[in-house]
Task: inverse folding
């Protein structure tokens, strides 16, 4: 019988007889195991405590991460709500497109935000073709991206979110919303785009009446 088979037989026996250590309490205290902390030898009881502590630590880390995510989500929801309220109050503005960008910039504390509607844009350049190909908002490096030249301080921007504006069920864009920051991590390439997509949908719904 091999060592692996012997070990498996012992494991199978203990699984089939969970009362074994209760019936033989002296073994619990006398068995010695190697600790994962420093390689020292400890009793089975201490090893069980060590394992439980590690499980608790991992659960605490997960809970902390979930609480951080929940807090971040609450902040996003509050900012989105604030934006929609400000946008609603701006409905009578002479330049609705400018109002969308300004209220978005204020609500989310964005360094730069602007947009263009193709029907009212004379400097679209490659931005329209680029936007038509976007299936989701672009997040990542700002350098060289279409639409960045529309910003007042484009050269200082390190990251950007480019959000296509579309009418419902249309593949053709009606414009592009540009958000940018000098912080390279503000719009990192690995960030989720669900909120940005909803911002684009909301802005599109507000602005679609301005395009044919």
Result:
């Amino acid at each position: 019988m091999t060592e692996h088979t012997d070990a498996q037989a012992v494991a199978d026996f203990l699984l089939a007889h969970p009362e074994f250590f209760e019936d033989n309490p002296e073994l619990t205290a006398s068995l010695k195991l190697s600790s994962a902390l420093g390689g020292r030898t400890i009793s089975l009881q201490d090893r069980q405590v060590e394992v439980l502590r590690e499980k608790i630590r991992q659960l605490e880390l997960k809970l902390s991460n979930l609480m951080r995510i929940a807090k971040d989500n609450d902040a996003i929801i509050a900012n989105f709500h604030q934006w929609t309220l400000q946008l609603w109050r701006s409905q009578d503005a002479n330049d609705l497109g400018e109002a969308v960008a300004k209220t978005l910039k204020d609500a989310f504390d964005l360094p730069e935000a602007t947009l263009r509607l193709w029907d009212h844009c004379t400097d679209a350049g490659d931005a329209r073709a680029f936007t038509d190909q976007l299936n989701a908002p672009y997040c990542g490096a700002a350098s060289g991206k279409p639409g960045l030249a529309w910003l007042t301080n484009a050269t200082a921007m390190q990251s950007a979110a480019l959000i296509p504006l579309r009418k419902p069920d249309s593949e053709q864009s009606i414009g592009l919303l540009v958000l940018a920051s000098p912080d390279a991590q503000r719009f990192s390439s690995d960030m989720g785009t669900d909120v940005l997509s909803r911002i684009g949908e909301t802005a599109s719904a507000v602005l679609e009446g301005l395009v044919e």
